[in-house]
Design goal:
Number of domains: 1
Shape: globular
Largest sheet: 5 strands, mixed
Distance between the termini: 25 Å
Strand content: 25-35%
Number of strands: 7
Length: 180
C-alpha cells in the first residue's frame, strides 16, 4: 500500500509500480496522511515508510512547482503528522522508517510524542568532513522496544578525497536492481 497526496506523484508512483511488476503487491492510494483513515481504515502494516518535507512553512522558499513545493516545505503536515499516521497504521512488531533533516530536533521529538521509539539511527554525510544532512530513523512501538539501546550509525557517501566511500559503494550495491 502506498499513500501519496500529490496527483502528479500518484501517477509517477503508479508507473513505477507497473514498471517494476509490483501491481499484485502494491496498491496506490491518493490521499492525505493526516486523514489516512479515510482511505486506509484501520489497516495496519509491518512496514510504514515516509519522507516528510524538511522545512516548516515560512522558513524556506516555496517552489512555484507544486510537486517540488510539497516535497520540501510542510504544506500538508510535518514529521509529527507522519509519525502520528505511522503509529495509527503500524502493526505489532512493525517498523516505521523515515528520512528527515539530521539537525532538526523535531526529527527525534516526533517519535516519542507518538508512542514510538527509535531502534536505529543512521546519519548520512554526503561529503566528509561536513556534518550529516539527513538521517534515517527506524522506529517501533515504544512498549515493544522498551529500554533496548538503540543503534547509531553513520554513512559517509564521499570521503575527504571526494571519492565514493567503500561503505557507500557496498550500500549502493546492496540495493541495486538485479534482473532475472
Amino acid at each position: 500500500m502506498a499513500l501519496e497526496a500529490q496527483a502528479l506523484s500518484v501517477g509517477l508512483l503508479r508507473r513505477t509500480v507497473r514498471l517494476n511488476g509490483l501491481q499484485d503487491r502494491v496498491t496506490v492510494h491518493h490521499g492525505d496522511l493526516r486523514d489516512s483513515a479515510t482511505c486506509l481504515g484501520d489497516a495496519t502494516f509491518d512496514l510504514v515508510t515516509g519522507s516528510p518535507p524538511y522545512f516548516p512553512e515560512g522558513t524556506a522558499l516555496v517552489s512555484p512547482h507544486p510537486q517540488k513545493a510539497g516535497a520540501r516545505v510542510e504544506l500538508r503536515g510535518s514529521v509529527l503528522d507522519y509519525a502520528a499516521a505511522a503509529k495509527r497504521h503500524l502493526a505489532p512488531g512493525g517498523r516505521f522508517v523515515f528520512v528527515m533533516a539530521a539537525a532538526d530536533p523535531r526529527t527525534e521529538a516526533a517519535v516519542p510524542a507518538n508512542g514510538l521509539a527509535v531502534v536505529e539511527r543512521t546519519d548520512v554525510v554526503f561529503a566528509a568532513p561536513r556534518p550529516p544532512l539527513v538521517c534515517v530513523l527506524v522506529c517501533g512501538h515504544a512498549h515493544e522496544v522498551g529500554a533496548r539501546p538503540r543503534t547509531t550509525k553513520q554513512l559517509i557517501v564521499r570521503g575527504t578525497d571526494g571519492e565514493w566511500t567503500d561503505d557507500y559503494l557496498a550500500f549502493r550495491d546492496r540495493f541495486q536492481y538485479v534482473s532475472s
